Every structure is written in C-alpha cells, then in structure tokens.
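Quiz preparation item.
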C-alpha cells in the first residue's frame, strides 16, 4: 500500500492539497496489532507508576518533574500533572493495577485537598505548588489552562467512581470556578492572573490546546460563558509537506491535549473536524522530522517526534513545522505517544522502535524518558508529569477509548460540545 506520507509528498509536488479521504481514513487503515497492544500495556503500567509514586500521599498533588528516585523533601507539584494523575487512577483501577479500593482512596484524598485546602482565586488554581501543602511556588500565576486540565481529571473521577463523596467533591470544585472572571471584552479567555500584577496580558485567542478550556467553561452549570466565545478565537490554516491543517504554536502537543478527554471523532463544528485536523498535523510533523534527517541522521523513516519537553538547557518548547526552538536531534517520546489515537499503528511502531534501538537511553523507571538524543547520548534527567500523562491517556484511548467514554458521560461535557455546535460529521467519500 502506498504510504500516506508518500501520497502527501506526491500531492505536495503537484501543488495540490490532499483530499480529506487520505487523512480521515488513516486510523481505520493503521490499526494496533496484538503486539502493539501488549507493548502499550507495558508502557501504560510503567508510566502510571509516576502518578502513583510521585503523588504526595496526603494531598494527592503530583510532581511537575519526577526523578528516577522519588523525592521525599519539599518539591514542586503541577496542577496539570495532578489532573492527568486523577485520570490515571481511573485507568489503573479499571485495569487492576492497584489493590481494591486504593485508587478510590487516593482520589478522595486528592479531591478533598483540592476542595478544602489548595489555595484558589475565583476557583482557579496556581500553576505550581508545594506538593506537601499546596502553597504557591515563587510568583507563579493562577492558570486557566492548567486549572482546566485539572478539572478534566476531577470530572473523569466523578464519572468513573460510583461514590457519593467523589461526586459531591467534584461538583463543588467545578461549580465554583468563575469563568467570567477571566473572560475578556472580546469574548476570549485570559491565560491567568498574579496578585502582584493582575491579569496576564496573554489570552487564548488562537488555536491551541485551549479547546478543553472553552468547552468546560461553556458547559458549566454555574458561571458558564456564552457560545460566542467558541467562535471568537482564530483558526489559522497552515500547510507543510502537502498537509493542510489548522495550527497555532508549532509544538505538537497543542493538537493532543484536548483530545485526551474530549472525543472529537466523527464530529465537527462550523469550522473543522478537529480529530482529522490532528491526524493531518501528526503527518505534517512526521514529515518535518524526516526533512531534518540531512542535518540530524537520527531522524529517519522509523524515528521521529519533537514537542515541548526537558532539554539539555532546561525546559524547551521545540518542534515544528515550522522549525521552532533549539532542535538538536533529540527525540521526545511524548510527541508520538500523544498522537496514538490519530495514527495508532504508526505511532505504536515508532515507540517500539525507539525502545528497541535505544533501550538504555529511551526507557527508564517510568516508561519512556522525557527526551533523549541518540547521537550525543544525552538523556533527560527528569520526567515531566504532563508528558507522561498525555502518553498514558492517549495510549488508553487508542486501545479502548476508556477516557473518552468515561469523561464524556459528564452532562457538562455534553453541554459544552452542544454549545460549540458539534454535530456528527458525514463520512468521507
């Protein structure tokens, strides 16, 4: 069978844009094999260990950066990583990785702390906090997007656990968020706020990972924002290697995060089919990496993937297209793991190849390392909770759709999707 990338290159050479059929059928033609599924089970279970071992037992807050040996002293937690961790608890309980009741107990501990002790402003939480007590780290911001990711984990627990207390805790945490507080006059939501300087200048006005933020805000029972806000942000079209798609920042994760919880398959709003859009973005990113092979031979037909991660000089938002950040030939497994539902077989094969070719570099205590460089032998010294999280959740969605199904049972999720105008999209012909 002619590969989609070859097809894309051929179309690009002709100056045309690939037809929808070439992209939208990709997941049906590129399924997981039994060997892929076995590998992903091992990957998920190893990755879950980060969220179990690196969450404080008294607060449930998950470390932003996890080391191979878990810390016991004061350390920085991320509320976004905690949101991934709450969803991870549901996966682990369903798959039987924990003793009976352990996941429920951890979920209760976490949600109690979020409701009663973690400092918040208008229902929004600080981005980084001390994992022991929830105190703000330095002068970090109250973050809208990180709060939204946390809420996705909260609502996943609410739907999964048949527990009255969990449901009550989740509803209080979600209902007290005052979405209007961060709503700008032009209808878009702001990035956040600091007590020292007020509202941040940046706002969510361009396509990115923020779809989950808007959908939660529109679907809320309390303080919901108007439907017009969904249409207020820009959706710029870009083209690379024959693939045309909506994109903002070049980092691949912007096409992944909302899809970890919201099931966009077979649906479209007035602007786009976002699941198909992420398929196209993944193909374009793969081609971008292949095009870098003349400069970095470690990128090749089987190995690709760059997104925001730990880098030799610290955290870097790197990737493409177009080329962005200090690209040095490093590979970021989460770039591939986070795209598993879009190209299941292709991404699974790439991840397996990473481990087979570079077992000492690519694999660690918590599954894949955050990033590694096959040429220099550099390995990221920490694992980012959000990168491990997107890999775990998207692997489970690619295999079973469990997170999509569980999260999607929340009535507010359904309301948000309806408010945005999502309808079943007609099959490609």
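Solution:
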């Amino acid at each position: 069978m002619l590969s989609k990338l070859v097809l894309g290159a051929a179309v690009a050479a002709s100056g045309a844009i690939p037809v929808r059929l070439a992209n939208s059928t990709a997941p049906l033609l590129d399924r997981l094999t039994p060997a892929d599924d076995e590998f992903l089970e091992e990957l998920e279970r190893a990755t879950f260990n980060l969220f179990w071992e690196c969450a404080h037992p008294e607060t449930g807050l998950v470390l932003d950066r996890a080391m191979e040996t878990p810390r016991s002293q004061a350390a920085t937690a991320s509320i976004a990583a905690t949101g991934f961790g709450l969803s991870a608890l549901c996966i682990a309980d369903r798959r039987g990785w924990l003793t009976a009741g352990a996941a429920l107990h951890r979920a209760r501990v976490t949600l109690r702390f979020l409701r009663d002790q973690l400092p918040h402003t208008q229902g929004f939480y600080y981005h980084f906090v001390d994992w022991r007590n929830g105190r703000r780290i330095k002068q970090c911001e109250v973050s809208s997007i990180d709060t939204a990711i946390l809420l996705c984990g909260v609502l996943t627990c609410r739907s999964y656990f048949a527990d009255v207390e969990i449901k009550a805790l989740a509803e209080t945490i979600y209902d007290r968020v005052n979405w209007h507080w961060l709503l700008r006059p032009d209808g878009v939501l702001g990035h956040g706020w600091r007590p020292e300087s007020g509202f941040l200048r940046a706002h969510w006005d361009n396509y990115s990972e923020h779809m989950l933020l808007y959908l939660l805000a529109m679907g809320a029972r309390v303080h919901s924002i108007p439907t017009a806000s969904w249409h207020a942000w820009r959706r710029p079209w870009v083209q690379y290697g024959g693939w045309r798609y909506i994109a903002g920042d070049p980092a691949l994760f912007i096409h992944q995060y909302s899809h970890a919880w919201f099931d966009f398959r077979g649906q479209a709003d007035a602007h786009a089919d976002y699941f198909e859009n992420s398929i196209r973005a993944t193909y374009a990113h793969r081609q971008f990496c292949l095009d870098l092979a003349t400069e970095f031979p470690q990128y090749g037909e089987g190995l690709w993937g760059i997104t925001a991660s730990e880098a030799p000089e610290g955290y870097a938002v790197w990737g493409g297209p177009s080329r962005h950040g200090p690209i040095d030939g490093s590979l970021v497994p989460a770039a591939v793991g986070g795209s598993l539902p879009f190209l299941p077989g292709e991404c699974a094969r790439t991840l397996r190849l990473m481990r087979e070719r570079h077992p000492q570099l690519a694999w660690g205590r918590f599954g894949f390392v955050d990033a590694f460089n096959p040429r220099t032998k550099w390995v990221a010294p920490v694992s980012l909770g959000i990168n491990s999280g997107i890999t775990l959740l998207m692997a489970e969605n690619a295999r079973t759709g469990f997170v999509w199904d569980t999260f999607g049972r929340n009535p507010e999720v359904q309301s948000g999707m309806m408010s945005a105008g999502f309808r079943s999209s007609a099959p490609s012909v």
